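Can't paste images in this forum, so I'm doing it all in text. The chain is below; anyone willing to post the predicted structure tokens underneath?
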Amino acid sequence: MSAFFRCFFLLSLLFHVACSEMAYYQQATAGQLSLLASRTPIEEMLNRESTSAALKAKFKLVLAARKFAATVLSLPAGEAYLDYVDIKQPYVIWNVTAADEFSLEGKTWCYPFVGCQSYRGYFAQSDARKFAKALSGQGLDVYVSGVTAYSTLGWFDDPILNTFINRSDPGLAALLFHELAHRVVYIDGDTAFNESFATTVELAGLRLWLEKHNLADQFAIMKQRKHYHQVFTRLVLETNARLKKLYATSLDRQTMLNRKQAIIEQLRQKYAAISKSWPFRGYNHWFESEINNAKLITVANYHDYVPAFTRLLQQHNYDFPQFYKEVERLGALPPDQRKKQLEALVNPSAPG
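Text version of the structure:
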């Protein structure tokens, strides 16, 4: 389907949604159309004398990473990331995540094209904050986070944005691998499955990318950063596990709330102690604002099943097409069965 007809279909959708959802789809449509209308081909940018040498170097890296993604990782690059847009702000989307006060099951919203997701995205930060305030007024835990990149899952040819073009070379390549992976497998209503799969492809792809380009120094830095990230993720997931046990009890609300806050405070203390020796600020920014169920969910979504998918990729000897077929098979299973089989990959004794 051409971009024109996709835009026409998107616009026509506005006439078939409930009035309460009209404003949301209007801002989503306007935001996406604005990106499409503002694109400039990378090749044109490369030929402009006004384009800085640093930006040209990034564009060349993008083209090389796209080729690597298609030929080595078997990712469907298509016409994605061949255009550039400077949106004049640090984030392209602001996501709102929400959960009940005593639950780590995120509230979900369902959309055309992409199905159900455990977050709601807005192109304007003010709209995201307004929606988050309304949810908070309902007693929900709420978290608003800025997003530098997102995938339209092949519906549109996603452009390179100023929000992520200045990442480190390995970081930029990794992001492209992650976003392109969403074009391979995307399961309606299972954010943790989708993001964990994309993260697995991202990490495996980055390792192969660095090896191919003989970037031993970058690989060492990546391994160190990965270690810190694993420590941070483990702390959060351990906290989530403790909270899930707490929420399964029948304690009165005030006692449950006190214990919830105590567990979260212990997370802060553990991180502060562990990160003292780290050579960079690490994830300090994450701890500088309120921590609640919604915020904890955002970490879990990206990492819950990474060990399982990594094990599956290893079982297929890094044959990416075969790996993708198996992931598609898992994605077609009922949610409970899918979860059991993923858990069995990292814990063979678990029923699968």
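DSSP finds 15 helices and eight strands in the chain. The beta strands are 40-41, 83-85, 93-99, 109-111, 115-117, 120-122, 141-147, 160-161.
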